[in-house]
Amino acid sequence: LQDCFSVSNSPIWMDSSTASQCSVLEKAVGGPQHLARLTGSRAYERFTGNQIAKIYSQNPEVYKQTERISLVSSFAASLFLGTYAPIDYSDGSGMNLLQIWDKVWSKSCLDACAPGLEERLGCPVPSHSVLGTISPYYSQLYGFSPDCKIVAFTGDNPASLAGMRLQEGDIAISLGTSDTLFLWIQEPTPALEGHILCNPVDSQTYMALLCFKNGSLMREKIRNECASGSWDEFSKALSSTVAGNNGNLGFYFDVMEITPEAVGFYRFNRDDQQVLGFPKEVEIRALIEGQFMAKRIHAEKLGYKVCK
Q: What is its EC number (predicted)?
């Protein structure tokens, strides 16, 4: 397949070289908030629509030679199917191109990115669609049953929501280098921070996704400074303080945060006065409670309702 690609190296999610394309897209649809209401997210540099716009603007001949544009998920499904697999609603929601309410490509977004884009993307489908049977190649070479059905592939975060069997009201939090929060939501309110995607399990509902860059590395930094690098000491210090931390609260952004866009350490005492530091055990609880408070606040902004 090596000679089939019009672009030999595709950008990955960490790419941030499309700021100018993001500005053009947001302006074309009436601003970042309107784009969020339309597609579930404001313009993000890593999103497919803006990456396509960059390729078109810098290499129009390459774009012209391109017959089909796939996501990683739909391309992987294509390999099993033996023909072009469609993009699913859920992964397609992370492109700045899909109208999440109508589940169709947004003409205004497509036109802002590149001409003839709809034909290159194909028609999106529900994430649980059966696309067909497996390619004879796999049956003959690996012994797959010819009746083996191929279901639409989706992205890693939608697949996590489906695999963990989340239901409405549930929240899943991944505590990694970056913290990720995703949840099943019935009536979303797209905002400038976070993402609203079509639900991979139920196409009539949605999932919200939030990413926080200052995750485990921030917790490890405070652990090293306040607990001698020991998680046991960290846990003991956390347990020695009361929930609510006697009104002391902190927000810790060692690197530029995604949600919200901020950097620096911000500590406040019970009188709502900003202070320069806390005792070690207070610092540890301020970090943990501040991180989880932020997750709840931003989830509520996207329409999540906390059940009492």
A: 2.7.1.17
Average pLDDT, the chain: 95
248-283 residue pLDDT tens: 999 999 998 988 889 999 999 999 999 999 999 999
Contact (Cβ atoms closer than 8 angstroms) between residue 266 and residue 219:
no
State the SS3 of 13-68: CCCCCCHHHHHHHHHHHCCHHHHHHHHCCCCCCCCHHHHHHHHHHHCHHHHHCCCC
> Could you tell me if 96 and 164 lie in one domain?
no
**Per-residue pLDDT tens for 206-216?**
999 999 989 99
* Residue 145 and residue 63 share a domain: yes
3-state SS string for 20-32: HHHHHHHHHHCCH
* Residues 160 and 154 sit within 8 Å (Cβ to Cβ): no
Hey, which residues does 98 pair with through a beta bridge?
105
Taking a C-beta distance cutoff of 8 angstroms, is the pair 202, 128 a contact? no
